[in-house]
Amino acid sequence: MTKRIVVALGGNAILTKDSSAEAQQAAVLSTAQQLTSFLKDGDTQLIITHGNGPQVGNLVLQQLSGSTEKNPAMPLHTVGAMTQGEIGFWMENALNKAFAAKNMDEDVATIVTRTLVDAHDPAFQNATKPIGPFYTEAEVADITKQHPDWDIVEDAGRGYRRVVPSPKPISIVEADVIKKMVNDGITLIAAGGGGIPVIKENNEFIGVDAVIDKDFSAAKLAELVDADELVVLTAVKNIFVNFNTPEQKALTTVTLAQAQEYLAEGQFAAGSMKPKIEAAMSFVKLTGKKAVITSLDNVTGYLEDGLGTIIVP
């Protein structure tokens, strides 16, 4: 029986300390080699989503640095579309190479994807989504002087970053097209960077300046395309409760109710694990199917031995 799986790739799947195209493509190739494990038995339809926070932020900076009156910088939503194409291109090439190395005959495509949001989402009044490079505390004053309209915040002890609005997804505009494509056996890269945020007015889709959390978009996409599983790949094999304390415990299989209790206790950091847990819980609650949170290098461990954090109804 064919399974349909939506995989949400974390930033470690693409990002390196070297932000050159060559370095990022090398990281994507390593990721693609791991992803082939989902398809090795020929019984899985795979939809891959990914983040774009560092790439979209860096491209905004490049746009601004070369902006002129006759050649103005593109708005954030359009830059999001540009990075969908950029990362999709890298991932297509990497998957083709990884499939060829294992003599796997798989078609791969990227679809530029729009994500519908509510124009009145309170997130537009409260920027929280980090994009672009990290800054040191010493650099913040200069950055703020250059870009007084930016919101700069400390990001989980790792430095300072620009933050932008991050509304919740209502729907994925291309969901039906995506479903048709995976039914035709295409391994699909979709909803990159959470999708291009759009609102709908008078039967017209209009881009808005924001970046949607890719895990929430992946959960919404998985719901809409009737996926059997949502797999969120991050930097750790398991989620922990009581992290960095003597009572630290790795979560293996947990129920939706147990996950809700841990969430209410404040067990998960808002800037890192909390949105992943919330997105996974949303998918499980709305579909009655399971969601998995584990590391990219544990894909085989999950597929063969069920290792990782698995949230069940």
UniProtKB/TrEMBL annotation:
Keywords: Arginine metabolism, Kinase, Transferase. It comes from the Bacteria. Residues 3-295 form the Aspartate/glutamate/uridylate kinase domain. CDD domains: AAK_CK (cd04235). Belongs to the carbamate kinase family. PANTHER family: CARBAMATE KINASE (PTHR30409), CARBAMATE KINASE-RELATED (PTHR30409:SF1). This is Carbamate kinase.
